[in-house]
Amino acid sequence: MSAAVIRRFGLCLMGAVLAMAFATAQSARAEVQITPVTSAKGVTAWLVQEHSIPFVALDIRFQGGANLDLPGKRGAVNLMAALLEEGAADLDARAFSQAREALAASIGFRAGDDTLSVSAQFLTENRDQAADLLHKALSAPRFDVDAVERVRAQVIAGIKADAQDPNTLAARAFGAAAFGDHPYGSSRDGTVDSVQALTRADLVVAHRNTVARDRVHVGVVGDITPEALGVLLDQILGDLPEIGAPLPPRAVYGLTGGITVVPYDTPQSVLVFGHQGLRRDDPDFFAAYLLNEVVGGGRFGARLMQEVRVKRGLTYGISTYLSPMDLADLYMGHVASQNAKVGQVVEVVRQEWAKAAAGITPEELETAKTFLTGAYPLRFDGNANIAAILVGLQMENLPVDYVATRNARIDALTLADVNRVAARLFRPDQLRFVIVGQPEGLDALK
Amino acid sequence: MRLTRICASLFALWLPLAALAGPITTFQLENGLDVVVIEDHRAPVAVQMVWYRVGAADEAPGESGVAHFLEHLMFKGTETRAPGAFSDLVEANGGNDNAFTSWDYTAYYQRVAADRLDLMMALEADRMRHLRLDPETVLTERDVILEERSQRTDSDPGALFSEQRRAAQWLNHPYAMPIIGWRHEISELNRETALAFYRKFYAPNNAILIVAGDVTPDAVRGMAETHYGSLAPSDDLPPRLRPQEPPQLAERVIRFEDPRVAQPYVLRTYLAAARNPGDQGDAAALSVLAALLGGNPSTSVLGQKLQFETQKAVYATAFYDGLAVDDTAFGVMIAPSEGVSLPEAEAALDQALAEFLREGVDADQFARLKTQVRAEQVYGQDDVQGLAYRYGQGLATGLSLADIEAWPNLLDAVSPDDVMAAAAAVLDKRRAVTGWLSAPNADLAVTQ
Asked: Which residues of B touch A158 (CB under 8 A)?
């Protein structure tokens, strides 16, 4: 409830989910053994067996997510996802929670822009019962009227709170300007009005459109054999509809370089900045990933952290990240600074962007390689995290041997490769700043 | 506070436990450094944490924020290493590092491939006693911390509200101070203040070294003796005797208004016992009480009564963390539904608590909670860093290893009668601060 500790630096506040989705796709435990499993009904999963602790972590993702909101129904997938644990089949909301608690299982659902994700952990001793409960939630949600109204009120409270949060305001303003009417141009939570207008029928449609077998990816880590997992997959997912709704088209990026100010009464402005990025399957993506680590990684050694925080004391933290989404690709950054210092921050970021377009030094390349390859095993802390990584790899269409080859790909990058890509990645004339606050010192910069 | 229901609902298993993972070995070096080794050989990774038994509640009057300021400055160089060299070396070895400050402790950690542990110990031991600070670097870092305060506190009405409530909760004890410090005092912190604090408190006999991961106790002992063994203990460590609270004689009330508040709420914190060495029974009962009152909203007492039955709330919960040196707080909160005023919300909360005190514990809910307590012994083995954290927090707040190891069994042993006795003792408004957070001109009138 209260912040019991404060840390030396924070992680980037916005876009963290996308940034992390990629970060996890980049990592692997050296000796991880991935076994692809296909069930009798044709559901596939990647499994890492870990029999030393008697439980299983399961990560299921349905591609599409809130992008599948129908016109005029923004927020339907989000509200639907929040209701999956609020009653299913013969269980109302309370009975469902009681059943989950009695099994000491955890089951969570979350709507993202690109995915509907399910995270579950359950004990070996009652695995079948937990799988049965999860199956009920995914295949037979009740959407009871009282549950819909209760959760709707919570979602609306969250939307109102977001409207007062400078970080959210900045991210939303950038998204709206960049993507307009495409789903990426608005919050997946919807607006107060759009959520208010959603009916039970809208939720049923959102469920049918998103929860289908043609778009599901599964990662499993824990105390289960491939044979037992095959049975479990069919138990949970086997009777879902074959086909969901088609994905919307790719989003068209409509922003130019420049500065947008969103006036807000706060002592410290929030700056979100960026332009288009690279697709995840772009051959230059690894080079771009390394370049971002050098210039805007959250580490102290990164150029922006050095220039904006360490040397000048202008902020508590600055970082940038590649955001390859399913339907658009961004390269984004985030920083907050006293209103009076915003002009200086913009100036330094612009200078660094121009400098970065010219490339990095051989020393920076080597340092980044050591860091990225050395950090390779560190993200594998816990079954649930590894399950999420397994899903991420599949969603990126990466091969099952990716984990074994990933470091070699980083090591193979040459200075010439990276510096050729630098001119592609960093586009100083296209860099757009969206600033929420009462920033000063921008007149000369506009 | 942000009302994201996903956060609330994913938090199914939330009792603070110290589950027993792999083997745990403990020993002490001659200079007083306590060492805990937690083995987990599933991945070739190690975590080093050094916890100092000092935090914001150990600061001198007028120097609020110095513990946290020093935490930042610990990355600014030693007699033999330049500013920033610490993080550069960690990063060059593919690791990550960070640090954090609380009221009772300050801790530093690195996660690295297990074969880099020796270098991490060399670095961490070096800065335990050999910090060197350049005056200009110190002033720039102070600007960074003022930005941090702006970002974390001044930009967040909930954080400002919390700061004000704490100041009202503790009249005499330094838990009243914000960890980051009051802005006017941060602005006056300097190199000398930070170094004086450092020399007094940063020493092996005031520290706990925790190494978790793919390591063996013998190897850790060898490395620890090499790197930390030669460090001199501090000879002027003061006893941790903070000014204690006088009896609270009147209910305290805070009305905090800020135009940035979209969702008003009522939050009340009662003064409550912490987990004390050899005496954790009350804290165990309070932990179970918090889980019963405020765990999953679909089954908790406050969730059922306020979100499901009366529907006065969009969210209601209870919370308690007993890991503190001195008396801490037990909290309850209600975020009212649209159209429900804060006075109505507070009345509904009071009514729900009164009903609970009358009705007692639901046997089925209690049994399910105990099932989860036991299951956490399984799930907890998967989170070796969490385990390291629990040991660090426990030892740094004065518990013994035996206290930490006894905790899961103490939770399991809590009876319904224990919970009701704890509830009756703690839920007394005369020993609480009740805060209302709202936008200005919000409807505070009782509309019933």
From this structure: 2-5
